[in-house]
Each structure stands twice: as C-alpha cells, then as structure tokens.
Amino acid sequence: MRHEPLMKGASIEQFSAVVKPTGSKCNMKCQYCFYLHKNDLLKQSPQPRMSDFILELHIKQHIEAQSCSYVDFIWQGGEPTLLGIPYFEKIIKLQRKYKKKDQDIFNSLQTNGILIDEKWCKFLKKNNFLVGLSIDGPKNIHDKYRLSNSGRSTYPKIMNAVKLLKKYDIDFNVLCAVNADNSKKPLEVYRFIRDEVKPNVIQFTPVIQKVDFKIAPPIANNQHLKSDSLEIPKETHPPIVTDWSVKPDYWGSFLVAIWKEWIEHDFGNVFIENFEDSVAILLGFGSQKCTSNELCGKGLAIEHNGDVYSCDHFVYPDYYLGNITKTHQADIISSIKQRRFGLDKRDKLPTTCKQCTYLKLCGGECPRNRFTKTPDNKPGLNYLCKGQQTFFKHVIDDINILNNKLKRSVS
After folding, report:
1. How far apart are CA 38 and CA 44, in angstroms?
2. Share of the chain above pLDDT 90, in %
3. I need a labelling partner for 336 at 20 to 30 A (CA). Which of 82, 115, 210, 342 fits?
4. How many CA within 13 A on the CB side of residue 120?
C-alpha cells in the first residue's frame, strides 16, 4: 500500500531531534571524535552556524510535530556553547512564541564544559537546562584523548565547570566515553565520577570506530591485518577498529566491574543509564534506551543548515532525509525512508541474534556497531557482542538480589 505522508505540521507521537547549530565546530580535538570530519564530508562552511531563519523554523516545526504534553530540545555539536548566551536566549524566546497551551518545553545541552562560567550557569539555571558533561575519568585518564585544539589539558576547565554547575544547583549528567585506555581502569573511572563529579546520571558510551578500507594500504594475499592485538584475516574483509576503540572483552569487563560495585554499594543511590536500562527490561518495564529497543528511527539529526539525517550516528549522504526548509519534520520522521531505517534494526538482525538469549537486553545494539560476522559467517553481528553477553550474564544472575533490594526499598 502506498504510504501517504502526514499533512504539513501534523502532530505525531513523540520523537527527538539532535540539533547541531555549530555543525562539527569545536574548541577541543578529541582523538576519538566521530564528528570532527563532518565538516569536510558534508562540505560545511569553515564557521558553521545555524541561521536565525533555520533556528526559528526548527523550533516551530518541532513543537508542531509533537502531540505530547512536553517537547524536548537537544542541542549538541561540535560544541554548542561556542554560539554564546545571546543565541540561546533567542532560542528561549522562540520556544515561548510557538509553545502550545499547557505544553512544557525542556532543553538539554551537551557540552565539553570548557566555556561554562558564572554567566552560563545563571542562564542555564534560570531556564532549567539539563546539562550533559563529557568527562572520561580523572586527569591522567581524561587527558589521554580529550585535549584542546592546541594539545593542552582540558581537565582543569572541565572540573571548574563541575564546580560551577554544583554551585548553581544545575541538573547535570556525565557522558563517559569508554575507550581503549580507560576501559582497563573501570573502578578508577567509576569512583572518580561517583565521588568527585557526582552527576545525576552516568552514561557509559563505548568508543567504536572503523578504519576506512578506502584509505588503508594494500594487503598482500594471506597477509593479516592487525587492529590493536586483534588479528583479522583479509579474506573475511571485516572492518578494522581504530587503536583507541574499546575491545569487546574490555567493554564487558568494564561494565561487570562497575556493576558489582554498584549493586553492592550504590543501587538506588547512583544512577547509571546502562544499568538502569538492563534492570528495567528484566523487571518488565521495557527498554529505556534506543540501542536496546527492538526498533529505532525516532531520533533525527539536524545540521546547522537544516539538513536532516536518520540519526546522530548516521550523518552520511546515504542517510540524508531532506531539509526542513522544504519538508516539515513531521513528514520527514514519518517518511518511508526513515521508517525503513527504523525497521531495519530488527529485520536485518542475523538469525544467530534472533535466537540469542540476550536479545531482549541488547535489542541488537546500535546498527552502527553491527559490522562483524556471526559464528556461521553471516554479517550484521554487533562488534561488542562478546562483551555485552558477559555483562548481561552477570545482570541476569544478580536479578534475584535486585528484586530483594527493590522489595525492601518499597516496604
């Protein structure tokens, strides 16, 4: 049956849009950043900045397209604070202009924290922003990959941002990128974030980046490629991950080590997104994250010029959906191409995954990480699979302990 797109501006069930008002422009040069190269890939201007026209159009459309009683706006980059406070004051005015009656507007800002000062904190507190702060651990660990454009430590400025966010009582979460280095120091990383940073929520995100075969040197027949200590025969042609990418085994052991400490000492007091998601699924509340959902496709990425892509991790020409100056967001999110993108997460799972005991916990994981092969040599296996299974086994084994703790907490 032919799909009929929504009428322009029609409200649909809630979806999110990660907006990049500065494109990939940033005041840091993290070695593992997956977005810095977008400037060249998307042929962005040297100083990308979302115009007033595109900004207002996005806010208007995003509010129009939502049928819920609240609307979330997500501002990322690059580094969005480079736009300055006046730009975000404009955002607040536009949101008030287009807000529907009895509708709440929420804003979240993902930042590296370098520019966060007293003025920023006053603005963020006044307008009830949720802040996502990126930090990878204590100084010796954080500075391994997260340096400034000039190669200097960013740790002091980020910890100053932590101090100011606490001073102004601003809700903030921490995003910790788990890479080849800090994945070997799970408790040092966790205890530092828990005891020194003390965010509302901790999110551990694995760093996984494939090496582009198009720029790799030619390999002789029967020669083996090496990625870190992992040997991969050329004949299977799998992608190779970068040296800073986390290995599956280390990802699993990282989560398990922190899980053991969390369930013993911190359950109910420290909120770790990865763990809350698994517990929620096992207790029958369903997935809390897109990566563990059966389907995806409800999270668009919008570039500074209004171009829309299927997801923040799929900002590539093949996943281009249109531009908000020509097509309303409501029509883009419900388009055939985006619906197919969302269904592919389930439909393109290998048979091995569909029969796996842990499928309900991982949902096949993020499609961007499904680039290795199954034991029966079929494509589409999650690169992290082995580590994820190690972690999920511990979660399932400990569910009875969790149930007991939950019963005590409500009694």
Report:
1. 8
2. 73
3. 210
4. 21
Place of tokens 């091995």: 352
pTM recorded for the entire structure: 0.87
CA distances from 180 to 243, 249, 384 (A): 7, 11, 13
Distance CA 2, CA 83 (A): 43
Does residue 281 contact residue 360 with C-beta atoms inside 8 Å? yes
What does the DSSP assignment read for 208-267? Answer: --EEPGGGSPP--TT-EEEETTEEEEGGG---EE-TTSPPHHHHHHHHHHHHHHIIIIIT
Q: Is 312 annotated as catalytic?
A: yes
Q: Which has the closest alpha carbon to 111: 72, 150, 86, 85?
A: 85
Digit-coded pLDDT (tens) for 271-302: 999 999 999 999 899 999 999 999 999 999 99
Element (H, E) at 397: helix 385-397
Give the pLDDT confidence of 189-248 residue by residue, as tens digits: 999 999 999 999 999 999 998 876 333 333 233 333 333 333 333 334 444 798 999 999
Nearest partner of 59 among 82, 90, 83, 80, judged by Cα: 90
The 10s digit of each residue's pLDDT in 5-45 is 333 333 446 899 999 999 888 889 888 886 555 555 555 66
Strand 230-233 and strand 224-227: the pairing is antiparallel
Sole residue written with tokens 């454009």: 149
CA angle 87, 91, 93 (to 5 degrees): 115
User: Quick check: 170 and 127 in contact, CB under 8 A?
Assistant: no
Could you count the other beta carbons within 10 Å of the beta carbon of residue 107?
A: 19
φ/ψ of 290, rounded to 5, equals: -65, -35
Strand partners, 174: 133, 202
Q: How many CB atoms neighbour CB 17 within 10 A?
A: 22
Q: What is the rounded distance in angstroms from the CA atom of residue 151 to the CA atom of residue 278?
A: 38
Q: Angle CA(229)–CA(235)–CA(237) in degrees, nearest 5? A: 70
Tally of CA atoms within 13 A in the half-sphere of 401 that contains its CB: 13
The two tokens of residue 210 are 């494939």
Identify whether the C-beta of residue 348 lies closer than 8 Å to the C-beta of residue 378: no
Backbone angles phi, psi at 8, to 5 degrees: -55, 125
